[in-house]
Amino acid sequence: MERIVWPQKSRKPAWRPRKKRIRSNGEPKVVLKCTRCEKVGHNRRTCNNPQLYKPPKRNNKSNESKKND
Fold first, then answer.
1. What is the three-state SS of the chain?
2. Where do runs of H (alpha helix) occur along the chain?
3. From CA 30, how far away is CA 41, in angstroms rounded?
4. What residues have CB less than 8 Å from 17, skipping those under 6 apart?
5. Does the pTM of the predicted model rise above 0.70?
6. Are 51 and 36 in contact (CB under 8 A)?
7. Burial grade of 54 (CB within 10 A; 0-12, 13-18, 19 or more)
């Protein structure tokens, strides 16, 4: 006795929808700029240059309130 195996019903894949929308012809391309070395053409994740030292930004909210008094 032969057993008949039917193919599975095809379904839409369960992955996430596409994030990147289709751009129009006149729309300019977005230029990547690295936040680590501040050069154009790559981002922080793919940067091979050593990190430049930048002093941390300070929050001067406490000083501003004293000046206003």
1. CCCCCCCCCCCCCCCCCCCCCCCCCCCCCCCCECCCCCCECCCHHHCCCCCCCCCCCCCCHHHHHHHHC
2. 61-68
3. 10
4. none
5. no
6. yes
7. exposed
SS3 46: helix
Any residues with CB less than 8 A from the CB of 35 and at least 6 apart, and which? 43, 44
For 43-48, the CB contacts below 8 A with 24+ separation are none
Residue with tokens 């300019």: 28
Residue 50: which pLDDT band, with cuts at 50, 70 and 90? confident
Q: 30, 43 in Cβ contact below 8 A?
A: no
